[in-house]
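Homework help board

Subject: predicted structure for assignment chain

Our instructor gave us this sequence and asked us to write out the predicted structure in token form, then describe one feature. I got the tokens but I'm not sure how to describe them. Can anyone check?
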Amino acid sequence: MLEKLGGAIKKATDKIANAIFLDKNLVQSIVKDLQRALIEADVNIMLVKEISDKIKQAAIDERIKEIDKKEHVIKLLHEELLRILGEHKNLELQKQNRIMLLGLYGAGKTTTISKLANYYQKRGKKVATISLDVHRPGAPEQLQQLAEQNGLTAFVNLTEKNPEKILKEFEKDLKKYEVVLIDTAGRHNLDKDLVKEIKTLNKKIKPTERILVMPADIGQTAKTQAKEFQDAVDITGVIITRMDSTAKAGGALTACAETKAPVYFIGNGEKVNDIEEFNPETFLSRLLGMGDLSSLMEKIKSVIDEKGQAKMQKQLEAGKISLTDVIEQVKSMSQLGGFDKLKGMIPGMNNAKIPDNLMQNQQDKIAKWEHIIKSMTQEERDNPEILKKETKRISRIAEGSGVNNSDIRALLKQYDMLNDMMKMGPDMDMSQGMDEKQMKKLMKKFGKTKKMRF
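My token output:
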């Protein structure tokens, strides 16, 4: 996601920081690299020129001492990039929430609704989805299917073609939910019929939020689209999809900032957990290869619900886990998505080379481990230490599960690693994530003293 832009910004920052003096040629070279990267990311030409002029002006400003100039220019570049990304604004839930999603054909509304439903359900909210898209063939069926696949609640009527009647049919049921996510119809463009329909629904639903869903690859057209939807129904925010598949997402992000439409979330994949809150500061931090631990912790919360977090917290306090817990934790982490998505969130891991088949290897390993556990006694599952003392048990389990002794020892190593993490401190709160000190301790323990094996 925008890796080339991130590389160019980091290169520019390093050039400034390492320069003895900021002469005219160096500044011109830095500005030219930045301009090329920003334009390739589809950022508006006028914004690119604005940033370029400010950097050039700061570099020749004789009022700033040379020793402070480099820091000043780097700070200015950072501030300008944050400015064009827009202000950070959270989608703040009320006691009862009706969130209406709008957008044109192909934006990804229905998939995004399921992602949002999963996002809030994992955070302990009572969530329902409803399909009022009566025009796109298969839209209600898609919402229903996604709900069934991910343990979500969906209200659909497969035969009714009047969205107002569908809404009336499920009105009483919807009142039982804290968060109701509403899928509306799209069109190829914002024509009079679509405007009329969403205005009518807006009056009937009285939504607490009206969110426009746009794909990242529409680039600067996002500015026009955001303005048109704002004029029609006064949108309160934006979700940008397909952030994983385009290098031109800069256009959509900056266009939304220009129209003062806050970006609440970004979607970065097809899986139900591939959604995250948009925070310009942490987004920029990730672009610069500095990681984004807060988004990583939020992503973890998307796959481990509040009950799971509470259970893990109890285990932390007791300092005791079983082999079944180990597999559940590995499964949860596998749901976070590919390691290419995660490594950008971990400081220092942005340029790490991860094998393409790593995720498949993890799935195969989990399946093997589940077979191993089925061949164990309950005592062995709960107290794996006895397997190290009585190695004959390992041979028996290997024979019963059709694996090698080394596979069982690999599972025991994973157990030891998770156990070590739990012993890092009784104050580690899994529901809040690790603090910086704990993360550094973990990185040191498993990054430097243990060889990473895949």
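Reply (TA_rk): Your tokens look well-formed. For the description, you could write something like this. The mean pLDDT is 79. That's the kind of observation they're looking for.
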